[in-house]
Amino acid sequence: MPIIVNLDVMLAVRKMRSKDLAEKIGITPVNLSILKSGKAKAIRFSTLEAICRELNCQPADILEFSSEE
Amino acid sequence: MRKLNILKSIIDIFWIFSMISIPIIIFLFGFVFFIEDLSAFNIKINGLKIETTTIVTKVILAVMLVSYLLLIYCLYLFKKSLRYFQKLKIFDDLVIDNFNRIGVFLIISSILTVGSSIVYNALYQKKLSLEIGFSPFILMLSLGFFFMVLSEIFKISKNMKEENELTI
Asked: Is the ipTM of this complex over 0.85?
């Protein structure tokens, strides 16, 4: 997918564990792992909003477009 | 799910009867294939009365046997798909593949049946007829295409289901 999820980078910057973030935004660690690994096909605005709120960042900090396959 | 169980029971009964008929048909076919004169027997397949005994007649009989066996195989694939439905594995790769195969084999079977009856009628009864309307050939051909379309629809549905499941 040309959309790269940089969630792990943001987690490292904010020094937060995946498990904690999953708990705070109300999704399962498995789903967060799917999102982090780039296997997810889509992301709900509500999930994106919750992640941005918890990590205090912008959607562009998490999602990136790359033309390379 | 009661409808599914009824359908499964009907298909199972059909399957059991066809399993009984297959060895008998193969035995009779072997008998007819090696016998010199068929006129002593009253052989009628799909409304086609076989009276003459030549190698072409025997080839036509073989083609009809293949067509019948293909239909039985379709029944088996359908039975297998229904079993998957009962396990609630609806948009499975196997079901999609089975439906596509059923479609292809139904089309092949209907073409073989109609082709062999046209050839037989043209060669031995000097009669060439074309039925327009509600004939078993058209019905089977349509059913074949229907299964192929169903397979495509299931493929699209499977992708949509995956997409839905992978939406976080």
From this structure: no
